[in-house]
Specification:
Blueprint (H helix, E strand, L loop, with lengths): L1 H21 L2 E17 L5 E18 L2 E17 L5 E21 L2 E15 L5 H10 L7 E12 L2 E16 L4 E18 L1
């Protein structure tokens, strides 16, 4: 009887794990967190130091056959102190709507597990020439992509029921302009976020 119970429990666990990995599913949720930016400057006369920023928005996940596609859309603020040779410090802030398009895989079952993912990120900058509404419209429609900034994300996450904790590294592929377009900087950053699954099907 004990062997039967053990075998039944094992088979149930394997079946649940397989169904969680193979059967297509959809999830949607919200997320918020902080980032720590490191700027690689195009001018050797300046040094960049790290400052904390923020991000908040929404994510979706479509999974099946052991893999998932996870597009996201969130507002982010990336900050840095820039010091020149004379010791003058300028605080530069980049505000944008970011759209990561991630592909990954998950291990685990029964609401617990880890995820690994990577993919490109398109950053729709909010500045004097493009306000929040314009950047949001461009991001949702993925419009005017060629004139935006690009990065690549790599990260891992832990799922605990409806909550997820993610840690990512973002490498800037293009240089963003600042100081009225006279200077450029490539943004590399880490971000740590807490996500909540609103619904799934």
């Amino acid at each position: 009887m004990k062997k039967f119970t053990l075998i039944a429990a094992l088979l149930f666990g394997v079946a649940h794990f397989a169904s969680a990995q193979l059967i297509p599913n959809f999830q949607f949720g919200a997320k918020a967190g902080v980032n720590l930016s490191s700027f690689s400057l195009s001018n050797n006369n300046f040094d960049g130091s790290n400052r904390a920023g923020y991000l908040g928005g929404f994510w979706a996940r479509v999974g099946g056959l052991g893999f998932h596609f996870q597009p996201e859309l969130y507002l982010t603020g990336k900050n840095v102190n820039i010091e020149d040779d004379n010791g003058n410090v300028n605080r530069v802030k980049f505000t944008s709507i970011d759209v990561p398009l991630l592909v990954g895989s998950k291990v685990g079952a029964l609401g617990f597990g880890g995820r690994f993912y990577t993919g490109p990120l398109i950053s729709f900058k909010i500045n004097d020439s493009q306000n929040f509404g314009g950047a949001f419209s461009d991001a949702v429609r993925l419009r005017d992509v060629k004139n935006q900034n690009f990065a690549w994300q790599l990260g891992a996450g832990v799922d605990i029921q409806d909550l997820s904790i993610d840690l990512r590294y973002e490498y800037g592929l293009t240089k963003q302009t600042y100081n009225e377009g006279n200077s450029k900087a490539r943004i590399n950053l880490f971000n740590l976020t807490l996500a909540y699954k609103i619904f799934s099907m």
